[in-house]
Amino acid sequence: MTGIVALYIFMLAAFTGYEVIAKVPVILHTPLMSGSNFVHGIVLVGAMVALGGAHTPLEKTIGVIGVLLAAGNAVGGYVVTERMLEMFKSTGNRAGKSTGKGTH
Q1: Is the torsion defined by CA of 45, 49, 47, 13 positive or negative?
Q2: Is 88 exposed, middle or buried (0-12, 13-18, 19+ CB in 10 A)?
Q3: Which segments of the chain does DSSP mark as H helices, in order?
Q4: What is residue 43's predicted lDDT score, i.e. its pLDDT?
Q5: pLDDT in tens, 58-97
Q6: What long-range pairs does 46-52 form, CB within 8 A, spacing at least 24?
Q7: What is the spatial distance between Cα 33 and Cα 87, in angstroms, rounded to a whole number?
Q8: pLDDT tens column, 9-41
Q9: Which of 25, 46, 51, 90 suits 70 as a labelling partner, its CA being 20 to 30 A distant?
């Protein structure tokens, strides 16, 4: 695959992804974030496979950067999802304790 074809596929995927995500209702953003965290894990595995096939120092450097960015993206996605889910809990239940009033 030539560089121009790869760039074209990347630009098409970025545009399609933006258009799909822009149409998602606000109520579905939390489940969508949880699902996208799974995809970020796959990206991390792909970056590690690419790093494993690297031979030159430049390829290895780009591979390490890719692994670090993918890992940060996956971890950050879980942190954001956890914070978003925390907003839906009642105030007395945020510390993990029940309020005793029957609300959860």
Answers
A1: negative
A2: exposed
A3: 3-22, 29-52, 57-87
A4: 85
A5: 999 999 999 999 899 888 878 877 787 787 777 665 555 5
A6: 46/70
A7: 15
A8: 889 988 888 887 777 776 666 666 666 777 778
A9: 25
> Reduced to 3 states, what is the DSSP secondary structure of residue 99?
coil
The pLDDT score that the predictor gives to residue 58 is: 92
Q: What is the dihedral of CA 46, 51, 53, 56, to 10 degrees?
A: 150
Q: What is the Cα–Cα distance from 94 to 81, expressed in whole angstroms?
A: 15
Q: Taking a C-beta distance cutoff of 8 angstroms, is the pair 39, 70 a contact?
A: no
- Domain range annotation of the chain: 24-93
